[in-house]
Amino acid sequence: MPTTSLSHTETPLLAGILALADDALILGHRLSEWCGHAPMLEEDIALANIALDCVGQARSFYAYAAEVAGGGLTEDDFAYRREVGQYRNCLLVEQPNGDFAGTIVRQVLISAFVDPYYRALTASRDATLAAIAAKAEKETAYHLRHSGEWLIRLGDGTDESHARARAALDELWPYTGELFEVDPAEGALIEAGTLPDPRALRAEFDATLDHILGEATLTRPAGTWMQGGGRAGRHSEHLGFILADLQYLQRAHPGATW
Amino acid sequence: MTPADADLARRAHTAAATVCDPEIPVLTIADLGVLRDVTVEDGRVEVAITPTYSGCPAMDVIGIEVQTALAEAGIPDARVRLVLSPAWTTDWMTEAGKRKLAAYGIAPPARKASRRALFGEEQVTCPHCGSAATEKVSEFGSTACKALWRCTACREPFDSFKCI
Ligand SMILES: [Zn+2]
């Protein structure tokens, strides 16, 4: 594997697949940072398991991206040889773990979106995307239930846990708008039946969230200002640090295997 | 398929079906429903396997062990292909597999797989004493496919195969 960064022609389909792959990889990497640090053993295992599901989903999408791109590229080229600006993940998944409440709120927000998204993707005209989604949506349903139950416990728990959950919700809420944004290239894929329209999933996202937040004695933040840009490669400073960690080995020892 | 190919496919299937899951060694990949298909094309055997979970780290090992089992049965150069569709669910596990799991101390998946009510209740029977007085300790267990439970009757902790 060459040391240079990847320069490949990004068709709308490839860009769409990479957005799905990058969301899963970056979220999986963030969750894996909890390994050995979670507040209790069971939760350490749970977060590592969710991370494993995410990285597994990412591998399926990257393998398909490599197939679509051709030219002998592999899943590893896409994960290890792209620069920050080439990553298409949403900003929400790259946000730091914060405290345990912060990680749980981020997980609820992304799972409440990704779970119905994958379910809709199972009806894609693209057979490979439909197959990956059919596998993944069983996992995300589990992630949503697990993180939802935790958010209820934290929100409806002590004053301290409630305050922390509330603060995390306020902090992360502005990153949810990007999940429902559609650029023209993605619009064409939606039109062709390759990808689902995220805007059509808004009602289900809101209903899921309202149900969980209601039980948690929390409410959806009133703020309407939203921060986007991740899908177009404009990331927060956090992604660079994630990639430095994630890509270090392949950048320092190109093509290393063991 | 020629009669010779059909015979080769049968022998290859028999060999592949003996491979055990490295994380639950009491189950074969046939018991689990991970072994999907064995085909022969131009005399070359292809074995299709499917992961239980997207990130299942056992798949690479299972692939190598399938090739080894076939080679030992006199079928070298078999190809292993990973298939995702139709997605694996606990319904793919055989009844024999479920009995072996329970005897091994792991509660088998209790219900038909379906999209569960998000906050629905689960009923799991203790694999040690058969009591229904059990409680979930953690949604996640020692591997991606298991959750951690405990029995309030016999006080033993146990793994339960997640229903997906
Ligand atoms: Zn018992």
Based on secondary structure, the structural category of chain A is: mainly alpha
**Outline type of chain B:** elongated
> Taking Cα atoms only, what radius of gyration of chain B do you get, to the nearest Å?
18 Å
CATH class of chain A: Mainly Alpha
Strand content of chain A: under 5%
Into how many domains do the coordinates of chain B divide?
2
- The CATH superfamily of the largest domain in chain B is known as Fe-S cluster assembly (FSCA)
CATH superfamily of chain A: Ferritin, core subunit, four-helix bundle
Helix content of chain B: 25-40%
CATH architecture of chain A: Up-down Bundle
The number of E-state strands of chain A comes to 0
As residue ranges, the low-confidence spans of chain B are none
Pfam families (chain A): PaaA_PaaC
Protein name (chain A): Phenylacetic acid degradation protein
GO biological process, one term (chain A): phenylacetate catabolic process
GO cellular component, one term (chain A): cytosol
Structure description:
The complex is a heterodimer of chains A (258) and B (164). Chain A has a single domain (12-221, 229-252), classed as Ferritin, core subunit, four-helix bundle (Ferritin). The longest helix of chain A has 29 residues, at 41-69. Chain A has helices at residues 12-32, 41-69, 75-80, 91-94, 100-121, 127-155, 159-172, 184-191, 202-215, 237-252. With 258 residues, chain A is mainly α. Chain B has 164 residues and is an alpha/beta fold. Chain B has 2 domains: 3-82, GMP Synthetase, Chain A, domain 3, CATH 3.30.300; 91-161, no CATH class. Chain B is elongated, with a radius of gyration of 18 Å. Classes of the chains: A mainly alpha (258), B alpha/beta (164). The A-B interface holds A 42-43, 45-46, 49-50, 52-57, 59-60, 127, 130-132, 134-136, 138-139, 141-142, 144-146, 148-149, 208, 211 and B 51, 53-57, 83-89, 115-116, 118-119, 137-142, 144, 148, 162, 164. Chain A: It holds the Pfam family PaaA_PaaC.
